[in-house]
Amino acid sequence: MISRNRTPSRYVYYGLHLYFSGLSLRKASERLSQMYKRNHVSIWNWIQKYRPQKLKASRRRILEYIVDETMLKVGSEYIWLWVAIEPANRQILALSISKERNMFVAERYLSNLIKVHGKHPVSTDDGGTWYPMACRFLNLDHHIHSSYEKSVIERTMQYIKDRTESFDDYFPCRIKNCKLKHVRNWLRLFVDYHNNEIKHVN
Length: 202
Prior knowledge:
By secondary structure, the protein is an alpha/beta fold.
């Protein structure tokens, strides 16, 4: 995929995952070498060739956005993870993090979402007022999750949370006032991997 030495793509992804999770190049290569022998220079080369891209507009017709947020722990602090998926193919359309959860953050998140994918109805849970207010401001149709939509987003959120526990359990952030760049990079890599896996399954 990325490397010239024909390293299987799953090991390239795992090496990038380790680095983006906060390990040094040498520590990442040590972990990776427990399964597949590669030195820190190999991982450095993969990083140079990997460019986390903003999510592109889906080629499929989007019926609606299923949107939700959840709390994650990064080091000693908590952050909010915002996720939007498309119900038909279950691909992640947008993913963002913030240190606050309110109408202004929701409006900015939805605004960035429609810049990429256009205006579509928004489905959310009934737990907060920030989504209805943000949708009203952006002139978006808003409704509460159906039972199907709720099950789809809950499975997706749990899937993400299961795989982001490494932030706190294995790679705690010790940088004071961290800007969370490594978290954003890891999440972009995760979305790339997740959407490609969904695409192959479909």
